[in-house]
């Protein structure tokens, strides 16, 4: 593997990838497996957002918070004592792990005979110009892939950029903040608010509108909302966003557009959106079109409006998930170099998880989306809500036990499953297999014919609406036992 660019007189690459994140690396390695001559241009650490300031370090922090939850619960299982949390120790271990992954990515490229070029690339006719530490060099390529990802953005407002951090900055925090304000309503906001709150911060979540995760099913949104409140997170709703952040003697004051004020804040984390990292690429001059929010426009085969230039991942804005970028990249390499003529990725029925507290798993359409797409009379919905067996021995009232809530959305006379949603303990680990089934066109009858694994929460999906209890009538409301498995582990139903 080379860390410096070849000379401009070198033969052209079959594929030059701009961006060393998960999607770009997956494409490069798959193309190299087919015998293509491949290079990756990256100006920072290998692995992109996911490895460095996203999925991986976030999951480490979520795991730490999950440990804290177990420590809180252990007295209910006969354990006595406690433990002290050391943020600095965890940060050191987490950062060392990320650094190790950076090295593994470098090694994988080397083992795949992919050339690594350190620098900042800009498109030109027939290839790219790379600004390196020793000057600019022109590199020719038959195909160029834009896999540069995105970056967090701040909204306008007095003192916001000066006195707040982004999700990237979260991983630089030297200590656990005593009092934190998290601004935003998406994945990142609810995940980091949950981590901070569980580890011991006093957290306020600031929402522009009423509830978080507005693209998710109402059952998920409502359950998460009530759980965040139960866990002690303060929520400011319908604020219109943050207007200003002022700092005096290390203490921050957050003022919202509706006049709401939070004082005495140690850390303000803005999770209000991300933008595609396109500015250095010279897209307009190269003839690559962008959408109204700056995302690169691509067709179903990941090709941009400039022939021979492709794009995938967050820079396109299509399902901004790491596995989606990896899948799109491998399909692209299959088509360009593996003679798989119609290889392309599908953006339908993509499983996703929100590492909130409790976690969320979802696949496909929400109830509202399904009714809008197929018509209310063609949609049947099954729901369930219960306390996980984990909480069975807790000596607390039932309504204080964290719920698991599930919903199945079906369409047509054969009740094909087009949406599956769950929030609760272990939701993050139960959805992958159901995603395979739904990709294969599974129906409610297919779920019913599967034998449950007991006692688990996931068994509820294959025991919804047992014989003798019919499904929800089209367009009707769900009765307390409608679509419900009345087994001993189920203590309440929607």
From TrEMBL:
<dbReference type="GO" id="GO:0034599">
    <property type="term" value="P:cellular response to oxidative stress"/>
</dbReference>
<feature type="domain" description="Pyridine nucleotide-disulphide oxidoreductase dimerisation">
    <location>
        <begin position="350"/>
        <end position="464"/>
    </location>
</feature>
<dbReference type="InterPro" id="IPR004099">
    <property type="entry name" value="Pyr_nucl-diS_OxRdtase_dimer"/>
</dbReference>
<keyword id="KW-1015">Disulfide bond</keyword>
<keyword id="KW-0521">NADP</keyword>
<dbReference type="InterPro" id="IPR012999">
    <property type="entry name" value="Pyr_OxRdtase_I_AS"/>
</dbReference>
<dbReference type="InterPro" id="IPR006322">
    <property type="entry name" value="Glutathione_Rdtase_euk/bac"/>
</dbReference>
<dbReference type="GO" id="GO:0004362">
    <property type="term" value="F:glutathione-disulfide reductase (NADPH) activity"/>
</dbReference>
<feature type="binding site">
    <location>
        <position position="273"/>
    </location>
    <ligand>
        <name>NAD(+)</name>
    </ligand>
</feature>
<dbReference type="InterPro" id="IPR001100">
    <property type="entry name" value="Pyr_nuc-diS_OxRdtase"/>
</dbReference>
<dbReference type="InterPro" id="IPR036188">
    <property type="entry name" value="FAD/NAD-bd_sf"/>
</dbReference>
<dbReference type="GO" id="GO:0050660">
    <property type="term" value="F:flavin adenine dinucleotide binding"/>
</dbReference>
<comment type="similarity">
    <text>Belongs to the class-I pyridine nucleotide-disulfide oxidoreductase family.</text>
</comment>
<dbReference type="GO" id="GO:0050661">
    <property type="term" value="F:NADP binding"/>
</dbReference>
<dbReference type="InterPro" id="IPR023753">
    <property type="entry name" value="FAD/NAD-binding_dom"/>
</dbReference>
<dbReference type="GO" id="GO:0005739">
    <property type="term" value="C:mitochondrion"/>
</dbReference>
<dbReference type="GO" id="GO:0005829">
    <property type="term" value="C:cytosol"/>
</dbReference>
<dbReference type="Pfam" id="PF02852">
    <property type="entry name" value="Pyr_redox_dim"/>
</dbReference>
<comment type="subunit">
    <text>Homodimer.</text>
</comment>
<feature type="active site" description="Proton acceptor">
    <location>
        <position position="454"/>
    </location>
</feature>
<feature type="disulfide bond" description="Redox-active">
    <location>
        <begin position="50"/>
        <end position="55"/>
    </location>
</feature>
<keyword id="KW-0285">Flavoprotein</keyword>
<feature type="binding site">
    <location>
        <begin position="184"/>
        <end position="191"/>
    </location>
    <ligand>
        <name>NAD(+)</name>
    </ligand>
</feature>
<comment type="function">
    <text>Catalyzes the reduction of glutathione disulfide (GSSG) to reduced glutathione (GSH). Constitutes the major mechanism to maintain a high GSH:GSSG ratio in the cytosol.</text>
</comment>
<protein>
    <recommendedName>
        <fullName>Glutathione reductase</fullName>
        <ecNumber>1.8.1.7</ecNumber>
    </recommendedName>
</protein>
<keyword id="KW-0560">Oxidoreductase</keyword>
<feature type="binding site">
    <location>
        <position position="314"/>
    </location>
    <ligand>
        <name>FAD</name>
    </ligand>
</feature>
<dbReference type="InterPro" id="IPR016156">
    <property type="entry name" value="FAD/NAD-linked_Rdtase_dimer_sf"/>
</dbReference>
<feature type="domain" description="FAD/NAD(P)-binding">
    <location>
        <begin position="13"/>
        <end position="329"/>
    </location>
</feature>
<keyword id="KW-0547">Nucleotide-binding</keyword>
<keyword id="KW-0274">FAD</keyword>
<dbReference type="Pfam" id="PF07992">
    <property type="entry name" value="Pyr_redox_2"/>
</dbReference>
<feature type="binding site">
    <location>
        <position position="59"/>
    </location>
    <ligand>
        <name>FAD</name>
    </ligand>
</feature>
<dbReference type="InterPro" id="IPR046952">
    <property type="entry name" value="GSHR/TRXR-like"/>
</dbReference>
<keyword id="KW-0676">Redox-active center</keyword>
<keyword id="KW-0963">Cytoplasm</keyword>
<feature type="region of interest" description="Disordered">
    <location>
        <begin position="475"/>
        <end position="494"/>
    </location>
</feature>
<dbReference type="GO" id="GO:0045454">
    <property type="term" value="P:cell redox homeostasis"/>
</dbReference>
<dbReference type="GO" id="GO:0006749">
    <property type="term" value="P:glutathione metabolic process"/>
</dbReference>
<keyword id="KW-0520">NAD</keyword>
């Amino acid at each position: 593997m080379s860390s410096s660019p070849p000379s401009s007189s070198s033969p052209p690459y079959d594929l030059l990838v701009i961006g060393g994140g998960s999607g770009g690396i997956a494409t490069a390695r798959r193309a190299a497996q087919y015998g293509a001559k491949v290079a990756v241009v990256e100006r920072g650490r290998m692995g992109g957002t996911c490895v460095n300031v996203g999925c991986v370090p976030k999951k480490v922090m979520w795991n730490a918070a999950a440990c804290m939850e177990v420590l809180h619960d252990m007295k209910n299982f006969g354990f006595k004592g406690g433990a002290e949390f050391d943020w600095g120790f965890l940060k050191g271990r987490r950062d060392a792990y990320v650094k190790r992954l950076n090295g593994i990515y470098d090694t994988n490229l080397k083992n795949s005979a992919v050339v690594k070029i350190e620098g900042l690339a800009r498109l030109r006719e027939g290839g790219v110009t790379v600004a390196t530490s020793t000057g600019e060099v022109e590199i020719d390529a038959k195909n160029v892939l834009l896999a540069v990802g995105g970056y967090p953005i701040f909204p306008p407002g007095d003192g916001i950029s000066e006195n707040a951090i982004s999700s990237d900055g979260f991983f630089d925090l030297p200590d656990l903040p005593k009092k934190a304000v998290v601004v935003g309503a998406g994945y990142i906001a609810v995940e980091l608010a949950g981590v901070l709150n569980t580890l011991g911060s006093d957290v306020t979540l600031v929402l522009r509108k009423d509830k978080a995760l507005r693209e998710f099913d109402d059952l998920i949104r409502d359950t998460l909302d009530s759980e965040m409140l139960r866990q002690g997170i303060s929520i400011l709703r319908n604020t219109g966003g943050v207007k200003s952040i002022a700092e005096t003697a290390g203490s921050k004051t957050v003022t919202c557009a509706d006049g709401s004020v939070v004082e005495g804040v140690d850390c303000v984390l803005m999770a209000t959106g991300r933008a595609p990292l396109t500015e250095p690429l010279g897209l307009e001059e190269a003839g690559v079109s962008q959408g109204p929010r700056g995302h690169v426009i691509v067709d179903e085969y990941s090709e941009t409006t400039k022939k021979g230039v492709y794009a995938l991942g967050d820079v396109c804005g299509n399902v901004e998930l790491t596995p989606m970028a990896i899948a799109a990249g491998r399909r692209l390499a299959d088509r360009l170099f593996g003679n798989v003529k119609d290889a392309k990725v599908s953006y339908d029925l993509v499983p996703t998880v929100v590492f909130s507290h409790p976690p969320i798993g979802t696949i496909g359409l929400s109830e509202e989306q399904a009714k809008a797409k197929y018509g209310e009379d063609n949609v049947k919905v099954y729901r369930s809500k219960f306390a996980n067996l984990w909480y069975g021995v807790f000596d607390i009232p039932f309504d204080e036990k964290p719920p698991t809530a599930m919903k199945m959305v079906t369409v047509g006379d054969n009740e094909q499953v087009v949406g599956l949603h769950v929030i609760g303990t272990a939701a993050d680990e139960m959805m992958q297999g159901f995603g395979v089934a739904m990709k294969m066109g599974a129906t409610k009858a297919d779920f019913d014919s599967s034998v449950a694994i007991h006692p688990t929460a996931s068994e509820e999906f294959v025991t919804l609406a047992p014989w003798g209890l019919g499904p929800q009538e089209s367009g009707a409301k769900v009765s307390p036992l409608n679509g419900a498995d009345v087994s001993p582990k189920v203590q309440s139903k929607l």
